Amino acid sequence: MNKDFLWGGSTSAFQFEGGGRLGGKGASIYDTREAKTGVTYSIASDFYHHYHEDIRLMKEMGFKAFRMSIAWTRIYPKGIEEEPNQEGIAFYKDVFQELKASGIEPVVTLFHWDMPQYLVDHYNGFYSRETIDFFAKYARTCFEEFGPYVKNWLTLNENNLSMLIPWMYLNKESEVAKKEPKQLAWDCYYNSLLCHFLAVKLCHELVPRAKIGNMMASAFAYPLTPKPADVFAAQKHNQETMWDDLDILTTGQISESLVKRLADKGVKVKSSLADQALIADPLAKIDFISFSYYFSLCMQDKGQPADSKAETMQMLYQAYYNPYLKKTDFGWQIDPLGLRIFMNELYSRYHLPVMVVENGCGVECDKLEDRTVHDAYRIDYLRQHIAEVVKTVDEDHVPVLGYLPWGCIDLYSASGNKDKRYGFVYVDFDHQLKRYKKDSFTWYKQVIASNGKEL
Q1: Closest by Cα among 102, 109, 90, 119 to 27
Q2: Is residue 298 in a domain?
Q3: Helix or strand (DSSP H, E) at 205
Q4: Looking at residues 18-44, what average pLDDT do you find?
Q5: How many CA atoms are closer than 13 Å to the CA of 372, on its beta-carbon side?
Q6: Could you tell me if residue 417 is inside a domain?
Q7: pLDDT in tens, 190-236
């Protein structure tokens, strides 16, 4: 393993940061959702008030990197202001300075789903071309203000999912939400692509020593059987959910094949000369590929019913269970070797370094006993996956930049479930958000100290 390998963990602002009504922060879609559901995203794990303690815990574990996101609404409360919110800038500068002083490199996601509610209400989020300009201004501010502290940037979290969940940033009351769904999905995705390319270009111009990558959700599928039709179904799934997106990001072109496949679905691809110039600009090319990986999938020939028992994200993909794999309580199949297979596939296709920025085993069975949690199940899950990361680097010679498992300190799931825990540190959501080290804390500390040799 490279001595500069980035061991650490990962979070997002809306799931972890809190301080939702403080420091001049505006309302995001999750703040609005809080008013409807009662899920306290505005508090979450309250990193806003606990960041000194949390960074000390990360330093004690030996973290080399910490992935976090910036809340767009903490910088521009509505997303449209002329001047940024200085309180928000000061907060993040404090965090970055403390991380750097602790020997921890911040890995920063510009956009992790928390769209300003104002942009949803007035512009339908990424459906509007005007949102592209607002995002570019926000990204420029981040690079100018935080560039001295951040060496590694990510653009939009799991943006390859945009085609599957375009409604996420739409004003449900508007006529836009009632449009033809396939064209709507493409239009939203296309505008988010332009946000990505603008951010990459700005980063390379404003922070030339930094590196910037995308962030994609792994949806890697095997064929359910060796039947050629099942093999083709898996190939088609992987192309449509991942490779189409990465092909655009890495080549700077929307392929003729994709344009024709979209046309077959009644979708028109409109791309101006200015858009094409941006997408093809060498400064807009990513430096690495980052991704989340929690499970692999199986796909079967069309015409067969999808597995009704497939849960959570697997239902999003209409996938099937692999009979050779175990699964978590949330229906996510446990496939450590799949992580190695996926990284090899990524590198063979795109020849770019890769970074694991989400991985982990979310469970509801963590129990605080004598000020700790005995989470052997988490250690077992992570041990198996880290072993495959080490093999990918040492045996396959794939340039893996880092391993940053999800929810390193307990946080809210995207759905708002605070009982689904991933972390090395237990957050007692019922008692003043006190922090407690789990057994996995000590184990991961040893993993990092040995650079992945002691698992």
Answers
A1: 119
A2: yes
A3: helix 181-206
A4: 95
A5: 9
A6: yes
A7: 999 999 999 999 999 999 999 999 999 999 999 999 999 999 999 99
